[in-house]
Amino acid sequence: MTGAVLAVIIAVLGALGVLAVILSERSPDGGWAQWLRDSVAAWRSEELTAEQVRTRRADVSEAGLEDIFDMGPTAQPAYIGPGDIASRIERARSRARSRADR
Known about the structure:
By secondary structure, this protein is mainly alpha-helical. It has a domain at 1-45. The chain is built from 5 helices and no strands. The relative contact order is 0.04.
């Protein structure tokens, strides 16, 4: 039982160590405390009102399925037909048979 508890404590300390290294490498210019203060101040300020955040009706438009396919050329089709699936299965079977015959 003591070994399991020690293993858990060591694992937690290791995870905290990794987290500390990541946070120290990615710290903002002014440090984490300054970043937190700035974030809270921006959150409490009213820079963006609810009207600016809401989606306007003019920004949203309905698009049909044809419009999605007409967005531009693609290297491969967006779907695979039943014939393609059957041919892939047959190729896999023939490869498996040829490898089994070796």
